[in-house]
Amino acid sequence: MDRRKWIRILLGSFAIALAVLGTNWNWGLGAEGTLKLTVVPLRYHGLAVVLQTPSKDFFLVDTGGGGDAQLLCTCLKEMGVSRLRGVVISHTHGDHQGGFPAVLENFTVDTLYLSPLDRKTPEPLRTRETDFSLALRRQAEERGVRVEEIFAGCRLDWGPGMQVDVLWPPEDLYFYPNPQPHGFYNGNSVVIRLQYGERVFLLPGDLTEGAAAVLIEKEKDRIKSDVVIVPHHGFFGSKAFAEAVAAEVALASCIVEYRDHPTRNVPGIQAVQLFAPVGSRVFVTAWHGEITVETDGSDLQIRSYQLIPK
């Protein structure tokens, strides 16, 4: 049997076993003054990451799609969230911004962070998703939410002890030859670098391989991190990026299988094949459920929780 096919079979069996049994790993433990990052296990394609700061404020990076809006709101309430100091929308795709209206309806939101993408997308590349993003701005402003545009070079004040920097996109956006809307939006995803103590977290949205190559060239030293969200739910293939990041832990938000994808229809396996060879421990929401990483700035504690239906 072809070696690559054999590896896929083994990884697939491993994924099924984890989905049935659940998992629980722990490395170190920080009790007081900790930063906590949780990847919400969405039912559909999407991303939603909850950050609880050492000051016990909550931030949300992406909101999943509209089909997961109720699930996301339920998860936030179970975490004790009533107020979000900030919500970041990484880019104008429904699986990242679709849940925001429900979040706005159910929680007090202080600031909505957006890149200039929806405003600056050229007319030939505009779609209903850019219009939706502009409508989100208006909705937020009507409810008294502060709307702030963020781009490479911005530093965000998310509380004492943390350094939060925006590494991407450029203020005038990232353009490449013959852009198409889907790739153009992904390539201009907001990339956030968050440092607390000795530990660095990298949240790159749906960053594309082309944009990643430019980011490596510009910010090679700063993208190295301890924890990374796997770009584009595992639909990402830049070995150079994985090597430059060199994360101890890689977290992928995806469903088990995308049957319609022509080449990478099991993105969790793709995430393992990309990040495990550089030494990352890879966790996938489709297999592990809700994934939480907590740090006191030194040690890391990692927990996963898979709800098994009766």
- Silhouette: globular
**Considering DSSP H and I runs of 4 or more, what fraction of the residues is helical?**
25-40%
Summed over residues and divided by their number, the pLDDT gives a mean of 88
The portion of residues forming beta strands comes to 15-25%
Strand arrangement across the biggest beta sheet:
6-5-4-3-2-1-14-15
Q: Unreliable runs, pLDDT <50, ≥5 residues?
A: 1-31
Count of extended strands: 15
Please, how many helices?
A: 11
Distance between the termini: 37 Å
Radius of gyration: 18 Å
What structural class results from the helix and strand content?
alpha/beta
Order of helices and strands: HEEEHEHHEHHEEEHEEHEHEHEHEE
Main β-sheet description: 8 strands, mixed
Structural key phrases:
eight-stranded mixed beta sheet, alpha/beta, 310 residues, globular
Describe the protein in words.
With 310 residues, the chain is of the alpha/beta class. Helix content is 33%, strand content 24%. The protein contains 11 helices and 15 strands. The strands form 2 sheets. Strands 6-5-4-3-2-1-14-15 form an 8-stranded mixed β-sheet, with helices on one face. Strands 7-8-9-10-11-12-13 form a 7-stranded mixed β-sheet. Strand 10 (199-203), helix 8 and strand 11 (227-229) form a beta-alpha-beta unit. Helix 2 (69-78) packs across helix 4 and helix 8 runs parallel beside helix 9. The protein is globular, with a radius of gyration of 18 Å.
